[in-house]
Specification:
The protein is of the alpha/beta class. 26% of the residues lie in helices and 19% in strands. The protein has 18 helices and 48 strands. A hairpin with a 3-residue loop joins strand 31 and strand 32. The termini are far apart.
Length: 878
């Protein structure tokens, strides 16, 4: 009886198992039939008249489909959602086809180990795409550029056997998740990932890491990679990584290192030169110091700031200053300006006549890090200004050994530790560092108790006669200084005049109205000079056609001559200037130009508001625009510009833009730099004009969003597409102007063939080929000797860097000025009598802090109320 019961149970379970297998097989068959119907053409050997397990490129076990291999079958169509029901599927390979539509979910396919979806045209990914795949080892979805943006979900961390994750050019956004530390092969290149490298990479098992060519660029440092001992390939090119290259000596298997087109700074570690590289790129960063000496001749110098073009040590002063920058983490501002092997040419560095560094000025830079003891190697140093930063750590004791040190300012940082004792001759300022030990540099020494006037506790005394003499001398000095200061002030108040209509118009704040010949000029407290319309009508012969200098979208510019013979340029805005856009540009230009003065910015003399008329009056630039001299010189009867004239003009423009970006009290972005907005004087010196589109940059120098404005061909690509502007949009436009100066070609010329009509695109191809290609591209009116061609080549490379697509790879204008300086004519200031004659005593060459006190630069706003007040004041007088 028991035997019969056991036999019955055995047969029941056997029938149940057979039934389950039949159901599974039927389910797989149904799914495969769905897949066959979705694909076009049908894969070879696939037919509904046969069992799927007999189809080509399909493998089964126990009647269940385990492998589907359809790579490179020229298939189109969509993958059906029923694929998830293939419970035993281990491998799905459909790469290199033309499959499209949304991808199905592969959630909870516990057997799936390899999934190849790369090189197709899929459109989207479901949220639970790879959820619950504990056996997944290889995943590839690269080259699916039509996918909607998606992020790598955190649930993928459950796939603990993952060996290879390839998702290049797959529309991935967001940050890199922190669970890839046990994935040997990770390819996330050509996506739109942002942020920094995850900290989990520091102890990872990664062997091949490809993160190159992110759209916006991964950022931050790559220090975390220095401990990946199994690393073979590291591709980080075309991102926005910053900071120094870390010591990679522990990565003994590293043979492929691609770091070009980032923002790396500092000295290349000597340790990586011992690695056996098959390929390495470092171009287009901000690397400094000695150029690396690799076993193979890799081309790594282009676009960096190495001290020399060949391997070998830098100048000792350069080495010392780079160590200082290293203490601060090699900040990008220093990396872009501390270039070459002569520290005396660097920003913030001053030298004596023998080329010895005597002053280092790095105050208020926002630097963090520590003060390097290597400063003591600058043995001629007299002045060191490091105040108002975020520096930490101690004040190096080695600084006390500097024999010529006179000034040391480290106040308002976060320094700590004991205060070194400096000689009494050193003016040492260290206040504002709460964690420094001691209250003064000699805090450990006893402080004598000095009795007023005559003696101290040690018995030494000062005679009353000596003290009285000292007091009298001090009083005399104070009186003399006060008298001289007062005379200078009163003289300046009487002399600061602007010649308008032959009238000396004082800008003395207390004096409001200046009357001459029955006409009154109203001078406001902000310095704006309102000029009556009758004066401008007379000066321009009632805005006659003969007086017209040029026209544009803003209106027309006329030549005017005042009663004293002074020539001016009068810009008459279009009637539409009363509309918002025109009024905004009118206000912006007045507000800006009445607050700043620079020898490379066109000066505003005054303005006029009369009914619907809006007029601006400038100093006259008799040689017209740079565009006239480059593209229409024959038409205007000019001689072609020489190379020295061209590069000097470029330097003048660069200095004007540099002032806008970094030297004024507030940083500005011009937004309309172009050859027609660069005006030339009789001595062929250049000034930047047309400030109707100028905008104040935000305080943190980051980008701001605005309506795109400017001129096609000069617009930086990131600004044209997103509307977000940084000062690098001016750098790009300046680079285009440089190309025009070099080639004599317009930025866009539709009369030329397609391959040459867009100057920037064409020039970039030329600059890569160099040699004869560049010679053939240069303006044929230039006389090319070897020395001229060498300087043209360097300026050409600068133009290419200024116009690179990634804004963060463009240099700042300070660097541009440093590059152009050696090739240009030296600027000589006018003699005092020339300044008086030309500008009525107002020295336009003054820097902003000298020309205006702080109170006059609090705001650049110019309200409608102010304009109405000016208009009413004029109307009341006529």
């Amino acid at each position: 009886m028991a035997y019969t019961k056991a036999l019955y149970v055995f047969f029941f379970r056997l029938l149940l198992l057979i039934n389950l297998l039949s159901v599974s097989f039927c389910d797989d068959a149904a799914v495969m039939s769905k897949l066959l119907a979705a694909l076009s053409p049908a894969p070879s050997g696939w037919s509904n008249s046969t069992h799927p397990c007999t189809w080509g490129n399909v493998s089964c076990e126990s009647g269940n489909v385990v492998n589907i291999s359809l790579a490179s079958q020229s298939l189109s169509g969509k993958l059906p959602s029923e694929l998830t029901h293939l419970a035993s599927l281990r491998l799905l390979s459909v790469q290199q086809n033309s499959l499209s539509g949304p991808l199905p979910s592969f959630a909870n396919m516990s057997s799936l180990g390899e999934l190849y979806l790369n090189s197709n045209e899929f459109s989207s990914i479901p949220q639970d795409f790879l959820l619950g795949l504990p056996s997944l080892q290889i995943f590839n979805i690269s080259n699916n550029g039509k996918l909607s943006p998606w992020q790598i979900s955190s649930y993928l961390a459950e796939s603990t056997w993952l060996e290879s994750f390839s998702a290049s050019n797959a529309s991935i956004t967001g940050v890199i998740p922190n669970f890839f530390d046990s994935t040997p092969n990770l390819d996330l290149s050509y996506n739109n990932l942002t942020g920094s490298l995850p900290g989990s990479f520091g102890s990872s098992e990664i062997q091949n890491l490809w993160l190159n060519n992110q759209q916006q660029g991964l950022s931050g440092t790559i220090d975390v990679l220095s401990s990946i001992t199994q690393l073979n390939q590291l591709r980080l090119q075309t991102n926005a990584f910053t900071g120094p290259i870390p010591d990679l000596s522990k990565c003994i298997n590293l043979f492929d290192l691609q770091l070009r087109d980032n923002q790396f700074t500092g000295v290349v570690p000597v340790s990586i030169m011992g690695l056996k590289f098959v390929g390495i790129t470092l171009q287009n960063n901000n690397l400094q110091g000695p150029i690396p000496d690799f076993v193979y001749n890799f081309k790594i110098g282009l676009g960096n700031g190495f001290c020399k073009d060949t391997p070998g040590p830098c100048d000792p002063q350069v080495t010392a200053l780079l160590a200082v920058a290293g203490g601060f983490g090699y900040p990008i501002t220093l990396a872009q300006s501390w270039v070459g092997n002569n520290a005396c040419n660097w920003s913030s560095i001053s030298c004596d006549g023998h080329g010895n560094v005597i002053t280092v000025t790095l105050r208020k830079q926002g630097f963090s890090g520590t003060i390097s003891p290597a400063i003591a190697n600058l043995t001629s140093l007299r002045n060191l200004y490091l105040n108002d930063n975020n520096l930490t750590g101690p004040i190096p004791e080695s600084l006390t050994s500097l024999p010529h040190l006179q000034v040391l300012q480290v106040s308002n940082n976060n320094l700590s530790g004991p205060i070194p004792v400096f000689p009494p001759s050193v003016n040492f300022s260290h206040s504002g560092n709460l964690f420094l030990l001691g209250s003064g540099q000699n805090s450990d020494a006893p402080i004598p108790s000095i009795h007023p006037f005559f003696g101290n506790s040690n018995g030494s005394s000062i005679s009353a006669g000596m003290f009285a003499g000292v007091v009298i001398a001090v009083v005399i000095v104070v009186v003399v200084v006060f008298f001289v200061s007062y005379k200078c002030y009163t003289k300046r108040q009487h002399k600061m005049k602007v010649s308008v209509k032959g009238i000396a118009v004082s800008t003395e704040i207390k004096k409001r109205d200046i009357v001459d010949c029955g006409r009154t000029f109203h001078v406001h407290e902000d310095g704006n000079i309102a000029i009556p319309i009758q004066v401008l009508e007379k000066a321009t012969n009632f805005f006659s056609q003969e007086n017209m200098l040029g026209s544009g979208g803003y209106g027309v510019v006329y030549l005017g001559e005042l009663d004293d013979g002074t020539k001016v340029a009068v810009k008459k805005m279009k009637d539409g200037a009363t509309l918002t856009k025109g009024m905004n540009e009118f206000q912006a230009e007045i507000a800006f130009l009445t607050k700043v003065r620079h020898r490379n910015l066109v000066a505003l003399i005054g303005y006029c508001i009369n009914d619907n008329n809006r007029l601006l009056v400038y100093e006259y630039m008799p040689q017209g625009t740079l565009g006239h001299h480059l593209f229409e010189w024959e038409k205007h009867g000019f001689d072609p510009l020489t190379w020295k004239q061209r590069v000097t003009i470029a330097l003048d423009v660069a200095r004007g833009i540099e002032y806008l970006h970094s030297l004024a009290h507030q940083s500005f972005i011009h937004r309309d730099i172009k050859s027609s907005n660069i005006l030339l004087s009789d001595d062929m010196r250049a000034k930047v004009a047309d400030f109707g589109l100028i905008r104040k940059a935000s305080n943190d120098k980051s980008s701001f969003e605005t309506l795109v404005a400017g001129t096609f061909g000069y617009l930086a690509p990131e600004y044209a597409t997103t509307g977000r502007a940084t000062n690098k949009v001016d750098v790009y436009a300046f680079g285009v102007v440089l190309m025009e100066i070099l080639t004599g070609k317009k930025t866009v010329d539709e009369t030329l063939p397609d391959e040459t009509c867009h100057l920037v695109t064409w020039f970039h191809k030329i600059i890569i080929r160099k040699g004869h290609s560049l010679r053939n591209a240069i303006d044929p009116t230039l006389d090319l000797d070897d020395q001229t061609f060498e300087s043209i080549s360097k300026v050409g490379e600068l133009a290419a860097h200024c116009t690179t697509n990634k804004y963060f790879r463009r240099p700042n204008m300070e660097h541009v000025v440093n590059v152009l300086g050696p090739f240009a004519q030296k600027w000589k200031p006018l003699r005092p009598e020339e300044i008086e004659e030309k500008y009525g005593g107002l020295d336009l060459h003054m820097s902003l802090p000298l020309a205006f006190d702080d109170s006059s630069i609090q705001s650049l706003s110019f309200t409608e109320a102010q304009l109405n007040e000016n208009r009413l004041n004029q109307s009341a007088q006529f």
